[in-house]
Amino acid sequence: MNEANYSELVECYGFLFEPELLEEIRRKGTCHTAKANMVILDYGDEISAMPLVIDGAIKILRQDSKGDELALYYLERGDTCSMTVTCCLQKKKSVIRAIAETDLRYITVPSENNKIWIRKYESWMKYVFESYNYRFDELLNSVDQLAFDNMGERLRKYLKDQVLIKKSSLLDISHQDIADDMHSSRVVISRLLKKLENENVINLKRNKIEMLDL
Question: Which structural domain range is residue 181 located in?
């Protein structure tokens, strides 16, 4: 890892990890880049490393028995993937698909370091368990939305989340992309988007959506 990469690591994680741990990450970590929509990890892949996001966002997907996918959560700057860490600990193959939601820069750390660092560094143990808790809360919120919220409210939240992730009010996304992420149909999503447009919440363009009311 060169000096520029290490400086970014410190900028992202220096307030979380002690200098000794940062130095270990420097020596053992590998820097990666990925273009938007690139698959980083797929179902059934062997997991040999844990990601630390430096810049950009990763979408985590789960597949049901019919082959349909649901977006579980997103990883952003300063995050790691709890499900990847779990698979590392249990030596299981991947049960998720990870896709670069935007252009991405991240560091991977060999999975065998996880158990060692949990025992050796209090900051790493806290980081891993807080990541578990945060993702668990997100998943509970997703279950609540599926069970209790109507699709229109779920769609509004989805669009607002996309604006935050992509840092733009103009979203380069198709109706089918949204339907896939929300485990719905394109027809339903298109109808709801048209309703939001009539309410002056969004402006629909060809394969783009402009958010007018955040």
Answer: 150-211
